[in-house]
Amino acid sequence: MNEINPLKRLWNSTADLYKRFNLDAPIKDRLTKFREEVNEFEEEIRAFEYGNGSGDALVEEAVDVIVTTIGILQKFGIDLDHLSEKIELVAFKNDAKTTETHVIHNGLITRRSKLDGSER
Q: CB–CB of 119/113 below 8 Å?
């Protein structure tokens, strides 16, 4: 069975989009677009807070943030394998966090050692 990898599909689609338009957008322009998409994502989050958000709209804006992030990574020559390795590393770090090593502090998961002063 040939499973579709959504991250690979989105990565390739983003690269193909730039190729299709023969655009090598400078980082300044890519950052502007990234910030625009983050702002739109935040607007959807606020809509949820006020009780009139749409799950579809929220997810679409999140994906737009991911696409613009991919475009920035591609601009700097980062490849999908490198991104995938870092995703796996972060997932591994998340999986290693337990209530013995971390605590909720100010609404965030925080290392206990950071709070008790033993972190170096």
A: yes
Dist CA 114 CA 102 (whole Å): 9
Chain mean position to CA 25: 20
Query: Token pair 């700097």 is at which residue?
Result: 76
Mean pLDDT, residues 13-37: 97
DSSP character at residue 81: H
Rounded Cα gap, residues 50 and 106, in angstroms = 22
Reported pTM: 0.87
Residue 44 · residue 57 · CB < 8 Å? yes
Please report the pLDDT score of residue 120 as a whole number.
62
